[in-house]
TrEMBL record:
InterPro entries: Glyco_trans_2-like, Glycosyltransferase_2, Nucleotide-diphossugar_trans. CDD domains: DPM_DPG-synthase_like. This is Glycosyltransferase family 2 protein. It comes from Lachnospira intestinalis. It comes from the Bacteria. Residues 9-169 form the Glycosyltransferase 2-like domain. Signal peptide: none annotated. Pfam families: Glycos_transf_2.
Amino acid sequence: MANNEKVLSIVIPCYNEENSILDLVKKVLESPVPNKEIIVVDDCSKDGTRTVLERDVKPLVSKIVYHEVNQGKGGALKTGFAAATGDVVIIQDADLEYDPMEYPQVVNPIFNDEADVVYGSRFKESKMKGYLANRMANWFLTRLSNLFTHLKCTDMETCYKAFKREIIQSVDIQEKRFGFEPEITAKVAKMNVRFKEVPISYYPRTNEEGKKIGFSDGVRAIYCIWRYRK
């Protein structure tokens, strides 16, 4: 199958993103990948996100799945992965920190059969980006993860993770919140797949702008690195 016939499934976990979800979906639609399947998973948002999804987003995307109980990012991704039918699956957060125009550099190594899993690294071949506390936490967690996975990863916590669909659908995801990141990294490493990192851009937002990860998520990540170690 030629690359221009292959389908990219974009899974967007969404929680209380009424101010950004429509703009994000429009950017995804503009991304330079010919065949896209866009799946939004609303994780029981409490603001006006569902109204925006039904009124404005639904005509633009392939599927919207609504959780009636909040399950966290890991739970939303598990739902989205199960719904995907494309050749390759990529994660896209509902905020505007990552640029969908960079999908090709993340997914083309899989489309070209050069890799099975690709992470888009915010830190590869560039200075660390984002706020200091988050940068240092990511630096520590990534290196701790590498000790057990034996991957040469520079950004384990990145949003942009792309997988061959059959690989991600074979993983039993257990973590509900941001523990998904070390869990999926450890489980992918155990599968001995072809892993690659590529550099990407990053436009961090503050807690006041809606960033949801916090100190307790970092503690949970340490636990998950140990729990899912090889």
